[in-house]
Amino acid sequence: MLITDIKGLVGLHPKDKLVLRGNELNDLPILENAWLLIEDGLIKDFGEMGNLPSSTAHPYYSAEGRYVFPSWCDSHTHIVFAASREEEFAMKIQGKSYEEIAAAGGGILNSANKLQKASEDELFQFAALRLKQMILQGTGAVEIKSGYGLTADSEIKMLRVIHRLKDQFPIPIKATFLAAHAYPAAFKDNHQGYIDLIINEMLPQIASEKLADYIDVFCEKGFFSVAETDQILKAGAKYGLKPKIHANQLSVSGAIEVAVRNGAISVDHLEESNEETIETLRNTDTIVTLLPSCSFYLGIPFADARGFIQAELPVALATDYNPGSTPSGNMNFVVSLACIKMKMFPEQAINAATLNGAAAMELSRDYGSIAVGKKANLLITKPMPSIAYLPYSFGESQVDQVILNGEFYNG
Length: 411
Ligand code: NIG
Ligand code: FE
Prior knowledge:
The chain is of the alpha/beta class. It has helices spanning 86-94, 98-103, 107-117, 120-136, 152-168, 191-208, 226-237, 255-261, 275-281, 292-298, 305-310, 331-342, 346-353, 355-359, 389-392; strands at residues 2-10, 30-39, 42-48, 60-62, 66-70, 72-74, 139-145, 173-180, 214-219, 242-247, 266-269, 287-290, 315-317, 378-383, 399-404, 407-408. The chain has 15 helices and 16 strands. Strands 1, 2, 3, 4, 5, 14, 15 and 16 form an eight-stranded mixed sheet that branches. Strands 6-7-8-9-10-11-12-13 form an eight-stranded parallel sheet. Strand 8 (173-180), helix 6 (191-208) and strand 9 form a beta-alpha-beta unit. It binds N-(iminomethyl)-L-glutamic acid and fe (iii) ion (FE). Residues 76, 78, 246, 320, 322 line the site of fe (iii) ion (FE).
């Protein structure tokens, strides 16, 4: 396929650029008035319209007035769940905090009760519907976590659902094992009992069936302590599972330190942070994944994106799509919020939601930017005056067409 008359071809980073740190995020290379040639699902070539190869027998698509972006790379989601939780929405509006709702029988345990009763087929149907919507909104690579099972059977059921999504969707999907999301009621006073279950029962089975790529822990007051997190991450490492951690969502908890010590690919959330957070992350390869639609929905602080960028850290953006803290999988809105609420420039936010999102899933060799030889997972916008118009026009989708592996995707 040949795409012609592209107003701007966005995100032309050199193919060997795998992650953008600090000020590198400011640079979003764009080729104006461009063409893009796709062959065998890969980006074959691109250039300016003045140098359009004359002898191509390819079917072509004119993108006049439109921009072509690399697909969004959403590196943090929880889209396998059995039911929405809008009853908690009303509690939130009344003024209850996330912690208070959880303590009142809502929260993760509420989702776990419902998920334990749902069949694998039902869960697959629900998650597939969500994923399809996300793709139509421009997402072309995604990470999905377990963590609403909280028993060996149900955690494995969730991971099998993710495995089926991997088989049936034309985008790369990474699976993260998050049994350490909350303590089930039965282990409320026996934390070590649940940790033993994770380490001795769940992990060996998951590893033998190759059901997970990463391991995650919700390291937070009232959830998993730093010492508990350390124990779980070390056990995961024995099976080759690298950490991606829920860190500093509600408090500065020591989560960043334990994550970095265990070689985390990413630390995610960081709505709460201080100088020490930044010092711990400085000069490491750990990616800082920010989730501004979680802050928006919960009414908690937005992360200090500018501080992290100033400290030369690699910042990524993701949705956190889940029924409790972020009932939305819309990366366009995440990019808007990043600009509006975290004061990221459009170029920074777009880089963070594409190449750095891919990097936070170890996919940036093949996804997240436009370079010859990379996968042709792209989005074509509606006609727009500039790239900044996409985050500026928040709430209105500018995504017109989605291309996955070089083919139009219509759901
Ligand atoms: O990333 N913080 C932990 N996990 C989710 C919320 C889970 C839930 O409330 O169901 C999050 O925000
Ligand atoms: Fe999350």
